Amino acid sequence: MSIQYGYPPARPDPAAQAVDWVNRGNSLQAQQHYEAALQSYAAAIQLKPDYAEAFWKHANTLHTLGRYESALDSYQQAIACKPDFAKAYSNRGVALHKLGQYQAALDSFQRAIELQPDYANAYNNCGLVYKDLKRFSEELLCYEQAIALQPEFAEAYNNRGNVLQNLKCYPEAVVSYQQALTLQPNHAKAANNLGLTWQQLKNYTAAQDCFTRAIALQPDYVEAYSNYAHLLNELQCFDQAATCFDQAFALRPDFNFLAGHRLQTRLQICCWTGLATELTLLAAKIGQGAHAAPPFTLLTMSDDPALQRQAAEIWTQAKYPLQFSLTDIPAFPTHQRIRIGYFSADFRNHPVAFLTAELFEIHDRTQFEIYAFAFGPDKQDPMRLRLEQSFDHFIDISAVSDPDAAQLARSLEIDIAVDLGGHTAYSRTGIFALRAAPLQLNYLGYAGTMGATYMDYLLADPVLIPAHNRVHYSENIVYLPDSFLPCDTTRPVADTDFQRADFGLPADGFVFCCFNNAYKIQPAVFDLWLGILAAVPSAVLWLPEFNPAATANLLAAAGQQGISADRLIFARQLPLVSEHLARLRLADLFLDTLPYNAHTTASDALWAGLPVLTCAGESFAGRVAASLLAAIGLPELITTTPADYQALAIELATQPRQLAAIKAKLAANRLTTPLFDIRRFTVHLEQAYRQMFSRSQAGLPPEDIAVATAALAV
Q1: Whether the Cβ atoms of residue 441 and residue 458 lie closer than 8 Å to each other
Q2: Which of 280, 303, 301, 283 lies closest to 292 in space, CA to CA?
Q3: Residue 511: helix, strand or coil by DSSP?
Q4: DSSP bridge partners of 662
Q5: How far apart are CA 113 and CA 163, in angstroms?
Q6: What confidence tens digit (pLDDT) does each residue in 351-404 have?
Q7: pLDDT for 323
Q8: In this structure, are residues 381 and 348 in contact, taking their beta carbons and an 8 Å threshold?
Q9: What whole-number distance in Å separates Cα of residue 579 and Cα of residue 582?
Q10: Keywords of this protein's UniProt record, alphabetized (predicted)?
Q11: Judging by DSSP bridges, how do beta strands 540-544 and 589-591 pair with one another?
């Protein structure tokens, strides 16, 4: 049944008739009959061409429909009819903001405030523009002015909380959100934002209460479901997080990057139902430019470096576009020593720190001045204490906003800023989007391209990025002559005399192992492993003790292929890394994962004397183990097809002499080949820094660099 719209009765006075048409438009607008409302406002304007309110209402309706350019024309007409129309200036500013015309928007809001100095909403809207410009101090002042003018303005308190959160002023943000909720108890966004702030303060119970409150207030609030799922992931409640992501996905499958986060969480519990189909759909969406998945998801699920670059570029443009709120970075004077700034959330007991600690200690201090910019979890563990002594300057920027952190790096005249995190947990890509240093390098923590125009270089090696894959990386590539991976040779291997029985391993059977994270175990590689176990009846597969859901799913998948549960053995976590390295010697062969290889775990295995078998893929993440094996002189453990990988694993398990020869070769090569020669690595890395810096000082743009093998003193 079609809706019948009554027309205003005819009147002899055109102005009165125009008012009737506006009132009709208002009624239609309230009923969300926007096109009919536009017609009514147009009729009013035809009757009274200087009717400012009709133009304003017409513009507001166009704005609601997302037709911002057309709305601007109508706002301009309203202002022409009524030059002191403060509301028209304010709403015009909102439309300009939507169109990305930030300065024009600010000018429009400022004019509204000049006309109506107590216009709290104009101050609030002005703050939202400063938010997008990352001008947080000015943003905060706007909200505080709005609150001073209108103390019951709940939305201004919510926005004030948001900027305080961006400024890392978390306790103050909590107070602001709580005030918003006091004024407006059903403010779902404030409850959600308060949850995010409690999460930053590690008050996980309060965060959980806030997210559940937001969802109760607004059952279709997909962002609250998503944030709650991320909290559950942080708490390693992966099965609950997966359920929460499913609820969000059911509400809005196209929500920003939700599909990828959801799949990544399912990988944490080894839930593979429909995985191949969903990955195909995900790849198609990324190919269309959709905000479908964070780039890390593509590293774990795909071996296609072209797709990984697309995902990274989409993510970077959406989350961390190049910012211009800081002035262009000046040319620094040539320093006596090149200033290197390492930025990381992982200066603690973390794989990145395990690899790099010795590197930081042995940098040539006559040539380089080394800075650490630390953020992320503040854990005063032994590694953190060691690293605090390893740098010339160790600066904690956890409580510093991205603009202030970038400005700090500039004030210290950092020559080369090294991002050790990339698109990983707790990363601070926003610092690099603001250009913290004249040269910016993507290195180590993220095994792929960042897809960001402001990252000048990516550190790699010829095995990681063969010539035919060069096009899939947005950065200029620095090729080190050996492996790109540093290896801390001070890592002790405990002299504990572990026995297989200590870990439930068979005394005489063959022990395959893989100590990678659960999300790296894809169904295709697990099928290969089960085929290996079927072909070697005396063998077992030794894995880390994952979360209960992952363990149950792996055992179920094995059972479906006739592999009994007692052939999968799960190792408890040991308190000391040195003890873990020692127990690795109980295994016979480390089986790598595909398409995301072992990185630190492969280095650990080789350092402990355990051979690693890999299948080299096409992506950076899928070629790391091959890079390590090439650098330690064991190319015979690099396969290139899944079938060859499986066949070689079976061959080594059934040919003890062949495996013994490989172990002997590994023992001989361990301290005589480049992989564990940290001084050789450091010389090459420093040569790379010098070449980057020399080009920059000469006014030349970054370009690919192949570092020559250095002649080292014996």
Answers
A1: yes
A2: 283
A3: strand
A4: none
A5: 21
A6: 999 999 999 999 999 999 999 999 988 778 999 999 999 999 999 999 999 999
A7: 73
A8: yes
A9: 5
A10: Glycosyltransferase, Repeat, TPR repeat, Transferase
A11: unpaired
Structure tokens at 580: 């873990």
Does this model's pTM top 0.90? My answer is: yes
Q: For residue range 68-93, what is the model confidence (pLDDT) as tens digits? A: 999 999 999 999 999 999 999 999 99
Tell me the three state secondary structure of residue 397: coil
CA 10 to chain centre: 62
* Confidence at 3, pLDDT banded by 50, 70, 90: very low
What distance in Å separates the CA atoms of residue 173 and residue 486, rounded to the nearest whole number?
40
d(CA 231, CA 238): 10
Contact 294, 261 (CB under 8 A): yes
8 A C-beta contact, residue 130 and residue 159: no
Residue pair 194/178 in contact by the 8 Å Cβ criterion: yes
Number of H-type helices and E-type strands within the chain: 30, 14
SS3 assignment for 400-429: CCHHHHHHHHHHCCCCEEEECCCCCCCCCH
Dig out the tokens for 584 from the structure: 């690795």
To which H or E segment does residue 512 belong?
strand 511-513
Separation of alpha carbons 447 and 676, rounded Å: 20
340 neighbors 369 (Cβ within 8 angstroms): yes
CA distance 685 to 648: 34
Using alpha carbons only, what angle is made at residue 492 by residues 490 and 494, rounded to the nearest 5 degrees?
A: 175
Both tokens assigned to 710: 């250095």
Count of positions (residues) in the chain: 714
Residue 589: φ, ψ to 5°:
-155, 135
Band of pLDDT at residue 325, cut at 50, 70 and 90? low
The span from the CA of 373 to the CA of 410, in Å, is 13
Q: By the 8 A CB rule, do 432 and 341 touch?
A: no
d(CA 95, CA 77): 14
Pick the closest to residue 638 from 407, 463, 391 (CA basis).
Answer: 463
The span from the CA of 393 to the CA of 372, in Å, is: 6
Per DSSP, the three-state class of 572 is coil
| Sequence-ordered strand ranges (E) for 515-656 | 540-544, 568-571, 589-591, 612-615, 638-639
- Single-letter residue type at 652: L
For residue 9, what pLDDT is reported? 66
Side by side, the strands of the sheet bearing 705-706 are 393-396, 368-374, 338-344, 416-419, 439-442, 457-460, 476-479, 705-706
Say how far apart CA 129 and CA 136 lie, in whole Å.
Answer: 10
